[in-house]
Design goal:
single chain, mainly alpha
């Protein structure tokens, strides 16, 4: 039975990760809540599963012409630095604090998505294309 649950977690994580939404948003809660995997282990599994998934998704998006390379260095350098600092912090933070932080992140994300969908339902444009590099 657990093999099927792991398979389902992989499918759901892969679908979201392939769309560029972050499969860990669903994979980590599924691993911790459904399968009882410790938080740090779930985060590590998420990072490990992310590597091949993101490389394949990146190739598909690149082939489809969906990549905009402008501003890429300005995005990657601070992201890498913060990633290193955050992973060092996560190694020392209590597991309960990691769970609470991730839960708060998901709640905040849910509120933002809910607010955006309400604005869209009331006829206010929320997904208009814009140039984020030249304002």
């Amino acid at each position: 039975m657990s093999f099927l649950v792991y398979l389902l977690c992989g499918v759901l994580g892969g679908v979201l990760g392939g769309m560029g939404m972050g499969g860990g948003t669903v994979l980590i809660p599924l691993l911790t809540l459904v399968l009882g995997v410790p938080q740090r282990t779930a985060q590590g599994v998420n990072l490990l599963s992310f590597l091949p998934m993101s490389l394949l998704a990146l190739a598909v998006h690149a082939k489809g012409g969906l990549l905009d390379r402008r501003g890429l260095i300005a995005l990657i350098v601070p992201a890498l630095l913060c990633s290193v600092l955050s992973s060092l912090a996560a190694a020392y933070l209590p597991a309960g604090m990691l769970r609470q932080g991730f839960g708060l992140f998901l709640c905040g994300l849910a509120v933002l998505i809910f607010h955006k969908s309400r604005a869209s339902a009331h006829g206010r444009p929320t997904d208009r294309p814009r140039n984020i590099y030249n304002k």
